[in-house]
C-alpha cells in the first residue's frame, strides 16, 4: 500500500544518473522522491569532484526495504567522489509502522564511496532529522546503530 513503483527511481539535484564528469558544482535545491536520492546525483559510475550539496533532501515515501538517501550520491557502482562536501539537511519522514526490519541507507556522502579508487577527502557538516515516526519504534537508536547509516549529526 505504501510502496511505490520504480518510476523515477533515481533522483539527484544535478542529474539522476552520472556516467561522466561532474565538477565544481553546488546544489542548493530542495529534493524529494525516488528510491535512490542523492544531493548531486542519484546514481554515479563517473567522477564527481569538488561539488557541494547545501540544500535539503526530504524522504517521504518508502519505495523498497532498502532505499538509499545520501547527501552527495545515492547509488554508486564505479567512478569516484573526491573533495565534495555535504552541508545540507536530510529529513526522514517515513513512518516505520510495520517493523524494525526496514533499513533505508542514509548517509552524508555515499554508503560505499571510500571503497572506490580515487575517492575521498569529503566533508560532512550536514544534519539529519527524523520526523513523524511511529513512537513505539526507537528509530534514533536503530538509525545510529546500523553500520550503513550516518552516525553523526542526527537530530
Spatial ordering of strands, largest sheet: 1-6-11-16
The coarse overall form would be globular
- Rounded to the nearest angstrom, the radius of gyration is 14 Å
Sheet bearing the most strands, described?
4 strands, parallel
Q: What share of residues are in beta strands?
A: 35-45%
Q: How many DSSP H or I helices?
A: 1
Mean pLDDT: 80
First and last CA, distance: 29 Å
Number of strands: 18
Order of helices and strands: EEEEEEEEEEEEEEEEEEH
Low-confidence stretches: 1-7, 146-151
Residues in helices, as a percent range: under 10%
Instruction: Specify the structural class.
Output: mainly beta
Task: Walk me through the structure.
Residues 1-7 and 146-151 have low confidence and may be disordered. The chain contains one helix and 18 strands. It has 155 residues and is mainly beta. The radius of gyration is 14 Å and the shape is globular. 5% of the residues lie in helices and 36% in strands. The strands form five sheets. The chain has a four-stranded parallel β-sheet with strand order 1-6-11-16, with no helix packed on it. Strands 4-9-14-17 form a four-stranded parallel β-sheet, with no helix packed on it. A four-stranded parallel β-sheet has the order 5-10-15-18, with no helix packed on it. The protein has one helix spanning 139-145; strands at residues 10-12, 15-18, 21-23, 26-27, 30-32, 36-38, 41-44, 47-49, 52-53, 56-59, 68-70, 73-76, 80-82, 85-86, 89-92, 105-107, 123-124, 127-130.
Amino acid at each position: 500500500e505504501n510502496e511505490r513503483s520504480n518510476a523515477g527511481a533515481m533522483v539527484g539535484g544535478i542529474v539522476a544518473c552520472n556516467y561522466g564528469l561532474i565538477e565544481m558544482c553546488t546544489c542548493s535545491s530542495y529534493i524529494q522522491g525516488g528510491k535512490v536520492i542523492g544531493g548531486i546525483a542519484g546514481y554515479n559510475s563517473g567522477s564527481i569532484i569538488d561539488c557541494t550539496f547545501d540544500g535539503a533532501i526530504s524522504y517521504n515515501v518508502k519505495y523498497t526495504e532498502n532505499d538509499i538517501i545520501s547527501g552527495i550520491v545515492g547509488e554508486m557502482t564505479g567512478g569516484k567522489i573526491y573533495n565534495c562536501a555535504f552541508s545540507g539537511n536530510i529529513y526522514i519522514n517515513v513512518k516505520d509502522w510495520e517493523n524494525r526490519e526496514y533499513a533505508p541507507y542514509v548517509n552524508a556522502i555515499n554508503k560505499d564511496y571510500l571503497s572506490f579508487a580515487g575517492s575521498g577527502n569529503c566533508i560532512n557538516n550536514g544534519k539529519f532529522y527524523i520526523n513523524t515516526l511511529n513512537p513505539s519504534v526507537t528509530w534514533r537508536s536503530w538509525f545510529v546503530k546500523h553500520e550503513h547509516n550516518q552516525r553523526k549529526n542526527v537530530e
